[in-house]
Write the structure tokens for this entry.
Amino acid sequence: MSSYHLDHLQYLETEAIHIMREVAAEFERPALLFSGGKDSICLLRLAEKAFRPSDIPMPFLNVETGHEFPELLEFRDRRAKQLGAKLIVRTVDQAIANGTATPAPGEVSRNKLQIPVLLGAIEEFRFDCAIGGARRDEEKARAKERFFSFRDAFGQWDPKNQRPEIWNVYNGRLNQGENMRVFPLSNWTEMDVWEYIRQEKLEVPNIYFSHTRDVFRRGGQLLPVPPPHTDASKPDPFAGGRPKPNEPIQSMVCRVRTIADMISTGMIDSPAITVDDIIGEVAAARVTERGTRADDKASEAAMEDRKKAGYF
Amino acid sequence: MSANHPIELLRFNTCGSVDDGKSTLIGRLLYDSKSLMEDQIEALERSADITGGGQINLANLTDGLRAEREQGITIDVAYRYFATPRRKFIVADTPGHVQYTRNMVTGASTANLSIVLVDARLGVIEQSRRHTYIASLLRIPHLVIAINKMDLVDWSEERYLEIRAEFEKFLPLLDIKDVKFIPLSALNGDNVVEPSKHTPWYVGPTLLGHLETVHIASDWNLNGFRLPVQWVNRPNNPTNKELHDFRGLSGQIGSGIVKVGQKVMVLPSGMKSTVKEIWTYDGKLQEAFCPQSITIQLEHDLDISRGDMVVGLDVLPGMGTELHAKVCWMNQRPLQRGKKYFLKHATQSVQAVVTSIDSRININNYDVQPEPAELALNDIGEIRIKTAKPLIYDGYATNRLTGSFILIEQGTNATVAAGMLQPPLEAVKPEYNDFAI
């Protein structure tokens, strides 16, 4: 019976396709969170596999911090267009301007400010479900989260009171104002994602591959030097994210392993120029993927706290 | 780690009572199979210095929530991932206290294998019987009884055999095909990844050795084709003329194999047709099998929607509104006769009312209590249900996917029960709706 047998990627794929179709069938207004990062790139391929030859029956949604790598945004827009999907972008800048998000004094990262923007978009478009690319192997709090992660009317996750999830029977029932976050890649690891990208020959933004870039060292990380501030009529969006005089700039051959935004993504010293090279690096890696992200280093419960407040 | 040959995936869960060392065992598997990263080990060492008096606590790897670290307990199922050159593993760490049935059912329902941990000093306790029972109830194909903390009983073979004999007294009462006993010490790593020099009397594999080699290829059911229709795929205004009449039935195959040209029946209507095409994004297939996610087209344009099921004619399922099932109750508010719930089965959701509670099973000694007044949190019992629409189903013993359901409380939408259907008294007749086409 060996011919009727799935390998691990095929198994993860069929599980994820099943979940995507459950979302399309059970929710009235779902959205798919697409940032252009490697995980959400896999989500798009899975959506094609779940729904073709029909159109993907949900719009793509992205929350911009305003600190994105330009390469990522270009890729995001192009990929959405290729797939004929509607891309909705909401930004932290707009939210600050209209007062729905307020930066904490002295805080440079806009990571937490994505929460009100996301919740605002969910309310604006009356989304009842958002599919995201989060994986359980990324972080300890995520390791506890369900495929169908219930959020109350404030978008909050209650880790102590999750719905039991049994077999492949998912409970997507909601009352007015509540919503669901759904994570089809829950069981995927970083390695699985790259193996899938290789198997499916998926294009990824070129910042995942090795290139030469100006960086500076801060808090044990190599952060990219942001693009210059040109429009003097506006405040510098990267204020605080630029190298200080005691943080010398160096040119380096590097790439990103995981993408948050320019302010919280550490570059890694790497010569990898192909997906095979990256897979080799992941196999040999001695630190976790999120070890390169400043947003998770804030405290041991940083992710749990953000999720309880409505984060992805 | 070569990815050039197919690698199998094994899903397992660990269960045991508080302090049996489940989290330590998983930590040991990850640590010794070199699946931990430097920053994870650093974080462990940091918390060891702060709270553990310098001793690394491997349990901190899986206890991911603040409250868990504060209280030193595991609250909810945690999932971990690791790989060896032979297999990839998904581990569900299922905590054994207050919500134990809920947690274990959640972690074990998708598992190929369950590890029941036993403290060698204590032997078989109530919880060991309970976990073994649930593993049997859920029909997990493989069971490992890990007799842990052998270092604390001086690696006594006699003690190991005693515990084994205790299990063998009640295992015949259960439905478990494959049981393996392994003496080990999760704390010190004996017989987890490396063979122990303390157990020369034990000739079996280490735990990881067993996980890497246990035969799982036949864990999926390839008899009797079932496709619960999940989503009807009708392209809107396709520019491609070929797709103009495309009417696909999308879903994950619940069991069996389907081939192009095969005769099938659509239930509940009973109408028959032939499989015209098996469509996937990667191209058309001649055949497909469980648990692939596919889209099929039939020769005839039948009225089919989500919740219907396409089935093979060789083995037909049951169909009815009066169901008999075992349930695990998972909510603080007890199950009451006469109360209405939503029932979700495969891709169908219907209203259901519990018409009787036939029995409650004492899973500590396996005694059956007839006609209890209610089923409370963690209880397992047999109930009868009436549904508003017929269910197309198989017995859970033969089909995990078409023999299972959940109950959802109306109002709160909480998932309150996991149900396993008894086999139908009679199958749908092949001539059920012959005149329809």
